Amino acid sequence: MNLRRSLSAAAVAALSLGLALGAGAPALAKGDVVRGNGNEYFLTNNFSSTANRFTYGRANDELLVGDWDGDGRDTLAIRRDNTFYVSNSLTGGTADRTFKYGRRGDVILVGDWNGDGKDTFAVRRGAEYHVKNSVTGGDADRVFRYGRAEDTILVGDWDRDRRDTFAVRRGSVYHVKNALRGGDADTVVNYGRERDVILVGDWDGDGDDTFAVRRGNEYHLANKLRGGAADRVETYGRPDDTVFVGDWNKDGKDTIGLRRVATSRPAEPAPAPVRTIKDGAHRVGSSVQPGVYRAPGGDQCYWEKVSGFGGTLDEIIANGYADTSPIVRIERSDAGFLTEDCGTWKSVEATYPTAPATSFTSGSFVVGGHIKPGTYQAAGGDSCYWERLSGFSGYLDEVIANGYGDQRPIVTISGSDTGFRTEDCGTWRRI
């Protein structure tokens, strides 16, 4: 949903200048102005792919990010004083729409305020918000007050209702509101450190926005609005990059964009190094790093995650045998990982095709990475097995739904599913 993607424009400015929209730590307010410096942009659809690189506007332009035309893809808009130049494609060239809105010194936020699938602007003046539901000039469609004038404001769809609303950040405490009105927060979350740089996005494509902490060029992504450890950690770009967030390829998942000063031979951000695991026993944090991995697998493939190296059965956290293309999340809390005859395990992102597939056979797949969500049908048979997954840690409670021995099974793989695994069902095709 486009509302999530518009998120980080302004934040970027705060991030690279060391400022925020209010008092406190630098934060990426969804739809806020991306200042920084440079007119060269690098957009990646995951943290290991080659970036789409293009130039746009001037090096000192204020930038905003949103889905202006409701096509599911975030694009860029330039603000110069109170004039906005809106583009509906991720290329350089002339803007698709130009108009004036608000005053020169206004703070601008971006979001889908009415749930129509299109991002629009809101003007912030202290604790008063002037919300516009179309990408045009003229009077606001709605005016209301919320929080304090000095508050740092984040924008996101926190409850999957397709409407963006506000969260107030005060230190490491977030007061989340699910409606555009005053009053008490609906949810209060303590997350990260007081001085952390925070981004907002839908990192797993489940329809709700959550937080990410940026520390240098390392991104700690959480998939739920809660405290505690991140669900995954990714490395991308340089520690001094100006960053922003959006869905650049309509897959429902937000990823990172970078803004840099153009050079005569611009260097693309280096993809994260591909991690590999060979046969044998490995200590987590030493010979193998935490992360999600995929292997070719096969009839003799065996793997296990262990809590210790005493050789006892109760130390086995999870295991698998004879799987085709198994995917496993190795966690920091695991003591070790053992594998035999599975082939070389690689970082799962390195196994993604150029575009997610709409037909596939046996194996484990990341939804949105290897395969597209949707409704699929296979020939099935007595040995056919399938399961929808909420994770790859190997726990039974990660199985959302499954089936065995079905003839011509039909399964809807949701965009909020993490993965899908199938064996001996024949070819699944989207219908």
From TrEMBL:
InterPro entries: Integrin_alpha_N (IPR028994)
Extent of the signal sequence: 1-29
Domain of life assignment: Bacteria
Signal keyword on record: yes
Keywords: Signal
The protein, known as: Repeat domain-containing protein
Organism, as annotated: Georgenia satyanarayanai
